[in-house]
Amino acid sequence: MRSRTAxxxxxxxxxxxxxxxxxxxxxxxxYVVDALSFGEAExxxxxxxxxxxxxEFEVKNxxxxxxxxxxxxDNDNDDxxxxxxxxxxxxxEKTAKEKRSAVNFLVQAATFNAAVKxxxxxxxxxxxxxxxxxxxxxxxxxxxxxxxxxxxEEKNDKPEFEG
Length: 163
Description:
Blueprint: E1 2-4, E2 8-18, E3 24-34, H1 38-49, E4 57-64, E5 67-72, E6 80-91, E7 98-109, H2 112-123, E8 129-137, E9 140-144
Parallel strand pairs: 3-9, 5-7
Antiparallel strand pairs: 1-5, 2-3, 2-4, 6-7, 6-8
């Protein structure tokens, strides 16, 4: 289980997908991408979907996502995404009263129970008291992280000497 904090955008795309009976069907699907702006989010989802799309492709919607963090699972069976609302409990030193602050997370898991387990595993590494307020399965198909372009090494040819 690993986590990642970034600027996340939910993107809805519409495209033709091949069906099991070799036909074509237009689908709307929801994906999350890591981007700094709406334009970068559109570019990222277009690039990520390119290998899977043969016909029409349209980015229908881009919305900033309110995820504090995303928890990625290492388990191949964890193929669903759950939105979890956690409430963090702190004590106000002046009034000695409990103060709660809510944060949304996205967690990858196979089932609802696995989502709870994955949250507990990820949050167990912290010393913060929390309560899971809500967990709901989403329609998110996948999450694409931003990969910085790898700089190609320039050829280091030996200089030619004129002689």
